[in-house]
Amino acid sequence: MKLTKIFMASTALAFAAGAVAAEEMTIVSWGGAYSKSQLKAYHEPYSAKTGVTIINDDSSAEAVSKLRAMNEAGNVTWDVVDVVASDAIRLCDEGLAEEIDFNSQLAPAPDGTNAEDDFGALLVSDCFIPQIVYSTTFGYRTDLVGDTPPTEICDVFDLEAYPGKRSLEKRPIGNMEWALLCDGVAKDEIYEVLETSEGQDRALAKLDTIKDSVIWWSAGADTPQLLADGEVIMGSTFNGRLFSVIEEQNQPVAMLWDAQMFDLDGWIIPAGLSEERKARALDYLYFATDTQRLADQAKFISYGPARASSAPLVSTHAELGIEMAPHMPTDPENAKNTFLYNYEFWADYRDDIDAKFQAWLAK
Amino acid sequence: MGSNVRPIHTNTSDGDTMSDTTDSGPMLAADGTPLKRSLSRALRRQKMRALMLVAPLLIFVLISFIFPIGSMLFRSVENDIVADTLPLTVVELQNWDADSGELPDEALYAAFAADMVAAIEAKNHTKLGTRLNYEQTGLSSLFRKSGRKMKRLDPAADAPFKDKIIDIDKKWGDVETWRAIKTHSVRITNGYFLNAVDMRRTPEGAQAQPEDKQILITLFQRTLLMSLMITGSCIILAYPVAWILANLPARTANVLMILVLLPFWTSLLVRTSAWKVMLQQQGVINEVLVWLGMVADHSRLALINNQTGTIIAMTHILLPFMILPMYSVMQTIKPHYVRAAKSMGATDWTAFWRVYFPQSVPGIGAGSILVFILAIGYYITPEIVGGTKGVFISNRIAYHISSSLNWGLAAALGTILLAVVLILYWAYDKIVGIDNVKLG
Amino acid sequence: MAALTPISRKPMSLVLPTVAAAGGALGLFVGTANGSGLMGVLVGACLVLAMALTFIKVLNNEGLSKWIAIVVMAALGFIFGGTPGVILGAIFGWLFHWFIYWLYEGRYRARLLPYLTPRQVLWHYAFRVLCGSIFVFLITPILVVMPLSFNAQDFFTFTPEMLRLDPEGYSLKHYRDFFTNNEWQRSFKNSLIIAPIATVISVSLGTLAAIGLSQNHVPFKRAIMAILISPMIVPLIISATGMFFFYSQIGNWMEGTLGLNKTFVGYVKVVLAHAVLGIPFVIITVTATLVGFDNSLTRAAANMGANPVTTFFKVQMPLILPGVISGGLFAFITSFDEVVVVLFVGSASQKTLPWQMFTGLREQISPTILAVATILVVISIALLTTVELLRRRSERLRGMSPG
Predict the structure, then answer these.
(1) Which residue, C73, C93, C113, sits at the end of a domain?
(2) What does the pLDDT read at residue B432?
């Protein structure tokens, strides 16, 4: 009798919990202006359409470790997670993200092109749905670099023409490639060179020439702050941050579009969701990664949509009213000399080179 | 109770003589039980009561902290993944002589094919790849890429495998690949600990890492050294402040105490950022110095992104943890001693150094151990203001936990750090006594 | 303690060189900033010297000379530095005036013991100045944070407009953001829920355990102590990952078996995790207070018929209360300022203030963080002042001498 009662009660509760869960999903992202752009472009229209409440969790920076811990504990509380491509590859390798069948699970382009072709080469992992293309590039203080502003990446390594501090990210990725590029290695041979120990030493030797003038950053907001303070004369950061410094904050800063590091940010679905939650996550992603939605996000932040078909739909900034296309890393004018970042290479060599890089930094 | 309880009743029922009873018979407590037993029961009850008071917290901490941390730290030696993912291969590898320089035979490749097909089915092969990639660069993509092709192999029908697998990727035909797998196939490994002290596990035994990758020992030394310097500067700054707080009238002291406590209400992150604004080259201090003409514009002081920055910011953050214990000890020091010393002709300095200072040592000890322990585990502040040379070992632990997912190495580093702290704690307990720690 | 020493006027041979030196020091700074240090020293020294002579020998009217000093220095400040110069000049004018009279009238002796030698007096004041500068060091960040929180820009930078005291450079927008932004409001509320509950748990359990530990004959005392203190010494990042596993299982069990609400379970997890982190501080402070505790007091209470609970609350507790309070303070701060563990154990609906600040610093610099910090500082000053005033009042009521 008593047992039945408890059983009934717990079933009722389980149902109640299920009903509540059905209306709610947790989406993990980076916070700040980026989350805001997703809220406007994806979450709000999706909630309006389906009635699902979306909870935003600003934990993307810890996503990899937290997902692994959740998975081991058997309690995955996230439904959709926004991560950078290299993290997505790691998560996919660790079995922490679901594999996606792009053509059947994502919307085709308006002209009928299937999703796989529409995303094209940007599909770098089986688990990862690209959302935006961003670039890590250099911004410089127009009032502190003299009469001839820098025009190419190698000016970063030119202390004579541009004396002063620069800021670089405190990790090997990006810096090693730029160093080799400016040390005379051809663009398409860089990763071959970087595979060898001598190549790594060569890159570090090049970085050595400016080491005393570098301030190393680790949070994306650092370089804009350093530029605004005049603490550095140039520095690398994400192009969206520079856009905000230049256009929204009106700082005397300009941007260098040369050999910028192309990178992707996008969605994964954590492994280990219940069928029902997984279906809802997929439904959300079908909606949020279609051509129009991706183009909409560009109204709020200057990152390029990952679909080829979205590019023509990019319009003006929602508040400033300026044309967004020229500020996109995908704009042909900006993308004349881009650097394609090799995910496979870094998945293999990241730990090895990172140890070397840190040892070099500490020297 | 105790020594002044005399035997009240003597047991005479069996007719023994008085002298016998007093010499060898048991002493009895008031209720007739032998005193020894009564005392030990009282002692036991006292122990039980003390334990009962401690128990709720002890159980809470044991279950919710010690046990989870222990199992986290156990990852520093645990290495089941190779043997679990490739069970047949690992058995076969035992028969293969790694030093022969020759490739394993067909039996091993067949076992490997069977293991891989099962692992791919369970999506475990890439996990194994990332695990082995910590030891030998390139294995991650080897497993990932081969996985796509080996999925189609049929362990029953497709034999022989050796050439097919080498065809899939020539690295499978490299002795080094198999040697790496064999070296790391043990279930309990010392590999992570070796990595944590800049060595590595190789088929030939433990070897030093290549010189250009040695970083962790340096970081350990730096962490200890800088924590000591931070503790030292905290002592120097806190002593006068604690003294003046303890010797001023209570009213003034309480108002000044607000100044000590205020920084607590400003988040650590904000305080660190504020130091950045103060210390950077275009920051407040440098601007003022340049304006005053004390420093030339082109040679501004480098106060941040180096060890100076870390020491200044962390000294500031940890200073209240030094002031408060010192203050509470100094409050208990009676001014009469110093006055007595002076009235007997001691100079100010002698009176302080020989009379006052020794009494304040427990406060210094308590503050030091607290500051040192807290300093050794910090990582957010060094990350923000430390630049390249002000980074601590905890930064590497955080990197391995949250970026590289090499939790085994993180756990090994954490275990070593913990061991260092525990040794210091033990030493402190021996020298000063942990009961002597006063926080406020 | 402060024995009143009769004060007497000091000879000009002491006053004049000292004030001239002070004037010269200021002159050096202003001079170097304007081109010539030597000129500055001379002009500064002469200026203050002239001020001292005029005030003492000619005017002989303290109130009037104060205003003269302030106005003259403010005018000079305006010539050299514009609006900010006026304020600095006025401050220095007041300061020099005070210094001149303080020396001349011998007021510096008033609060000191009469038998101190001049060297001891000098040391006494040098020591005060030293301590003063350490206090300034302690509150430096707050001095930076407060003005920056009114920055009109979205950076942590003192803009030229701010330095000119131009109203254009200031704005209240970061405060508006804090009060209107849901994220900030929610995280503030969460912190106010989590920190006090975690503190209560660590203080109550910790005090009990400390009392148990402080008794004689506790078996395994050292080991138990080490275990209870361990949350302080394990690197936070390791604690965070380790605790994550434990709390997600506990969370599963509470949601699944007990059928509790998910949000509620989330709070329980963070509160318990923070309580553990606060425990070492409570244990250390309370055991320290108990070292000097006279156990015959509890025996006396028991002897007179009080039960253990009464004994605890009426006899023991009031005596160890200072230790308990400071332990609780540390525990509260630990929770209120903790970001690593909550990042792991908590989920979006338990986002605390430090978490929100952490995202704010990493993702996009927003001086809203500074506005929050300023608000917290103001609240805590108000709280601490109230506590101090109440304490003084109760002292007065109990007829104790003001210390």
Answers:
(1) C113
(2) 66
User: Could B267 and C279 be called an inter-chain contact, meaning their C-beta atoms sit closer than 8 Å?
Assistant: no
Nearest CB partner across the interface for B291, out of C33, C237, C392: C33
Q: Is residue C152 part of a domain?
A: no
Helix axes B250-261, C368-397, angle to 10 degrees: 160
| CA pair distance A253, A271, nearest whole angstrom | 43
Q: Does a structural domain hold residue C379? A: no
Cβ contact B291–C377 (<8 Å): no
Q: Chain C contacts of B244, Cβ < 8 Å?
A: 127-128, 131
Residue A337 — left, alpha, or beta (φ > 0 → left; ψ -120 to 50 → alpha)? beta
* SS3 category, B28: strand
ipTM of the complex: 0.85
Q: In angstroms, rounded to a whole number, what is the distance separating the alpha carbons of residues A339 and A185?
A: 13
Contact state of A95 with B137 under an 8 Å Cβ cutoff:
no
Looking at the structure, tell me whether residues A103 and A55 fall in a common domain.
yes
Q: Are B429 and C222 in contact (CB under 8 A)?
A: yes
C349/A59 touch (CB, cutoff 8 Å), yes or no: no
Residue of C nearest to B60 (CA): C276
List of chains touching A (3+ CB pairs within 8 A): B, C
Share of chain B above pLDDT 70, in %: 92
Shared domain check, A38 and A102: yes
Write out the residue range of the structural domain in which residue A171 sits: 136-260+342-362
Instruction: Please answer whether residues B35 and B29 qualify as being in contact, where contact means their C-beta atoms are separated by less than 8 angstroms.
Output: yes
Place of tokens 């005379």: A184
> Count of CB contacts below 8 A, A vs C?
91
> Among all chains, which residue has been given the structure tokens 């791919």?
B120
Name which of B40, B267, B318 to mutate to probe chain C: the one with the most chain C Cβ atoms within 10 A of its Cβ.
B267
pLDDT at B66: 93
pLDDT of residue A287: 95
Q: What is the pLDDT confidence band of residue A136, given thresholds at 50, 70 and 90?
A: very high
Q: Could you tell me the residue range of the domain that residue C247 belongs to?
A: 186-366
Q: How many domains does chain C have?
A: 2
Q: Chains with ≥3 Cβ pairs under 8 A against B? A: A, C
CB under 8 Å to B111, separation ≥6 — which residues?
Answer: B86, B88, B89, B91, B92
Chain C residue numbers touching A69 (CB-CB < 8 A)? 241, 244-245, 248, 344
Q: Within this chain, do residues A184 and A243 fall inside the same structural domain, yes or no?
A: yes
pLDDT at C52 over 60: yes
Contact criterion met (CB < 8 Å) for B212 and A359:
yes
- State the average pLDDT over residues B20-35: 68
Nearest-CA distance A204 → chain C (Å):
27
